[in-house]
Write a structure and sequence with these properties.
386 residues, BTB/POZ domain-containing protein KCTD9, Pectate Lyase C-like, 4-stranded mixed β-sheet, phosphoprotein
């Protein structure tokens, strides 16, 4: 018989087994100086009948505490010798890990784990009923870290999130592992696909989206795509690449094209009522016969847009906001710019012949070299042009 108490194994005694189980517990109590209440065999099986005991069995008795396997038990912290090669057990989030103090200390001596176990009781580490040191962290993320400290290799089983392991490595201060994990995470990510979206792909996308839902195409690449005659109302194309796109006859009513790249695109006869094109780049684009005029009074906003060399001949732009936009060398022949805001706009070398500029605000605009022949409304000096 031997007694197991608080992770300690007391000296054993050989006794004769006879009578009933109660008799055995009485003998054990007298021999070991305890009040024995339970008897276990060497494998942790509870003995409830003396007939189950074999001649060569080693029995363990206790005062009611659960059985502790002598093969996996750990000695209490008080009995550790302080040597850096002592074996110890960690209880990480309810899962047990057995390792040596040197494993936790030697590879990363400045880490949190090293400081926790370098000096005896330095951190006042808490232990569970088995004497295992309690660490309230994720066991599945801790296992790769412990293995790395053992052999210096990053090995992560399938299904384990590398971001979780990285977070634990940062928590425990395993600096050399952090770099390995960041490289592994970067390599595990799929290569960025910068290929343009085709008309077929986009139409499928449009059909799958409810008409009342906001469709965000922010920053997407449509370069060179044929999007002509499509209903693109209210779609968010902010910062999207629409260069060299065919948007002829497309309905872009109230679409957001802020900072979008429309350079070289064709938007002839497109519906641009209430469109937002702030700071967009439409250099060299064709916008002939476009309609920017909204009968409800919603004005198109092209403030700060780059419209160098655009062809906007015959477009309806009543009340349009082109403040501080660049229209150098643009063709604006026969455009309706009634009530347009052109303050601070660069109109150098623009063809404005046949335009209706009644009530347009040209304050501070640059009209150097601009053509005004056959204007429907005379340009008055009071409008303070340059």
């Amino acid at each position: 018989l031997t007694r197991r108490v608080s992770g300690c194994r007391s000296p054993s005694q050989v006794v004769a087994v006879y009578g009933t189980l109660s008799d055995l517990l009485s003998v054990a109590s007298n021999k070991l100086g305890i009040k024995a209440t339970s008897v276990y065999n060497g494998k942790g099986g509870l003995i409830d009948d003396i007939a189950l005991i074999r001649d060569d069995d080693v029995l363990f008795v206790c005062e009611g505490e659960p059985f502790i396997d002598p093969q996996t038990d750990v000695r209490p912290h008080e009995e550790l010798t302080g040597s850096h090669t002592d074996w110890l057990t960690l209880n990480v989030g309810g899962r047990y890990f057995t390792t040596t103090r040197s494993t936790l200390v030697n590879k990363e001596p400045d880490s949190m784990l090293a400081h926790m176990f370098k000096d005896k009781d330095a951190w006042g580490n808490k232990q569970d009923h088995r004497g295992a040191f309690l660490i309230d962290r994720s066991p599945e993320y801790f296992e790769p870290i412990l293995n790395y400290l053992r052999h210096g290799q990053l090995i992560v089983n399938d299904g384990i999130n590398l971001l979780g392991v990285l977070e634990e490595a940062r928590f425990f201060g395993i600096d050399s592992l952090i770099e390995h994990l960041e490289i592994a995470i970067k390599n595990s990510q799929p290569a960025e696909d910068h290929s343009p979206i085709s008309r077929k792909e986009f139409v499928r996308f449009l059909l799958a989206t409810p008409t009342k839902s906001e469709l965000r195409c922010q920053g997407l690449n449509f370069s060179g795509a044929d999007l002509s005659r499509l209903d693109l109302r209210y779609i968010n194309f902010k910062m999207a690449n629409l260069s060299r796109c065919n948007l002829a006859h497309a309905n872009l009513c109230c679409a957001n094209l802020e900072r979008a790249d429309l350079s070289g695109s064709v938007l002839d006869c497109a519906n641009l009522q209430g469109v937002k094109m702030l700071c967009s780049n439409a250099e060299g684009a064709s916008l002939k016969g476009c309609n920017f005029e909204d009968p409800s009074g919603l004005k198109a906003n092209l403030e700060g847009a780059n419209l160098k060399g655009v062809d906007m001949e015959g477009s309806q732009m009543t009340g349009i906001n082109l403040r501080v936009a660049t229209l150098k060398n643009a063709k604006l022949k026969n455009c309706n710019l009634r009530g347009a805001t052109l303050a601070g706009t660069d109109l150098e070398n623009c063809d404005l012949s046949g335009c209706d500029l009644q009530e347009a605000n040209l304050r501070g605009s640059n009209v150097k070299g601009a053509i005004f022949e056959e204007m429907l409304t005379p340009l008055h000096m009071s409008q303070s042009v340059r």
